Amino acid sequence: MRIPLAFCLMWTGSAAILHGETTPLGQALPEEKEIMISCELATAEPRANVPVFDSPKDSDAAKGNYHYKLWLPKGYLADPQRRWPCWFIMSPSGNAGMGAMGARLKSSGYVVVMPQEAKNGPWAPIVGSLLATHDDVVKRVRIQEGLKFATGFSGGARMSGLLAEMRPGFSGLYLQGAGLPPKGNGYHNAGLTKIPGFAVAMAVGAKDSNLHEVKAVQAALPGARFLALSFEGGHAWAPAESFDKALSWIEQQVYVEAPARPEMKPAYAGYFKQRHAEWTALTVPWERYRNGDALLALARARGLA
After folding, report:
1. Could you give the CA distance from residue 76 to residue 82 in angstroms, rounded to a whole number?
2. Is the CB of residue 201 less than 8 Å from the CB of residue 229?
3. For the stretch 121-135, what's the b/e string if a residue is b when 16 or more beta carbons lie within 10 angstroms of its beta carbon?
């Protein structure tokens, strides 16, 4: 299977042939500090929710050593039983980072995972980087299944949709400057349409040539919750304000509106605790009233005492 040129663009090297030692699973991890993790994809036929490769040759080309940056939120080390929500970030040029999303991701208590070799180019190294990164971090870090999210810009946005298709436990996407990965005359979307309550926010610049994809992506995801955002400018990463709106909306869909999942009750409680702390800090009466109503709605929807 080959991704069209619109997705592939240029590739200046093969991440799949990099070699080096992998980071031991038992290595101590610090909070509130970006660290680099080395991992490996050794399986010739990577397990996936959707078909990935058409031939053993392509599958073989995905094997190799890869790297990702990891950020753990404040409080991660204090409770060895707690599981945390997680964002995966992809960049079309590789070496992904938090960028304008960093302040909100850190203040909201997310684990953040940033694949380094996944970038516009041939299919196999992209898939290899995404699968190696995902499969390593879910073994290394206490990530809550069902509270995994993915984002990226341009080709990175398409990679985020692909990752959510290939691996279970995703509940939302934030697409920036592009839609889902192309497949034939449409999109890779079959895996996403099967996820109950899946939430997709899409932010595209008002002058971006991909602006037409907003309606196309919405149409390709029947049943998904969808939010369209626009910002001034062209083909670029969305500003922090767009991410703030998108994340607040995605959290509302997942934590309050989507069907309740009993196994996620500790995660619902953790989200409630964080929102309650923000509420207690408010001093304006109408803000306390509005946010207090939202807290009550969350507690009722998720059966929190």
Report:
1. 8
2. yes
3. bbbbbbbbbbbbbbb
Instruction: Please give the Cα distance from 104 to 107 (Å, whole number).
Output: 5
E strand or H helix at 70:
strand 64-71
Nearest Cα to 227, choosing from 235, 217, 237, 236? 217
Q: How far does Cα 200 stand from its chain's mean position?
A: 11
* Cα first-last separation, the chain: 50
pTM: 0.89
C-alpha to C-alpha distance for 42 and 288, rounded to whole angstroms: 52
Residue 79: other Cβ atoms inside 10 A: 12
Side chain identity at 181, as an amino acid letter?
Answer: P
Q: What are 143's two structure tokens?
A: 């990530």
Residue 175 in tokens: 């697409």
Q: Which phi and psi angles does 281 have, rounded to 5°?
A: -85, -10
Q: HSE of 156 in the Cβ direction (CA atoms, 13 Å)?
A: 28
3-class SS of residue 162: helix
| CA-CA-CA-CA dihedral for 235, 232, 229, 234, to nearest 10 | -10
137: which residues sit within 8 A by CB, 6+ positions away? 37, 68, 70, 86, 111, 113, 143
**Between β-strands 84-90 and 111-115, what pairing exists: parallel, antiparallel or unpaired?**
parallel
**Of 112 and 305, more confident:** 112
Please tell me the predicted confidence (pLDDT) of residue 50. Answer: 65
Q: Lowest-confidence range among 5-14, 90-99, 160-169, 265-274?
A: 5-14
Work out the pLDDT band at 54, boundaries 50, 70, 90. Answer: low
Distance CA 219, CA 62 (A): 32
Question: What are the pLDDT digits (tens) for 219-240?
Answer: 999 989 999 999 999 999 999 9
Residue 32, pLDDT score: 97
What's the whole-number mean pLDDT along residues 287-294?
A: 91
* Percent helix, strand and coil across the chain, each to the nearest 5: 40, 20, 40
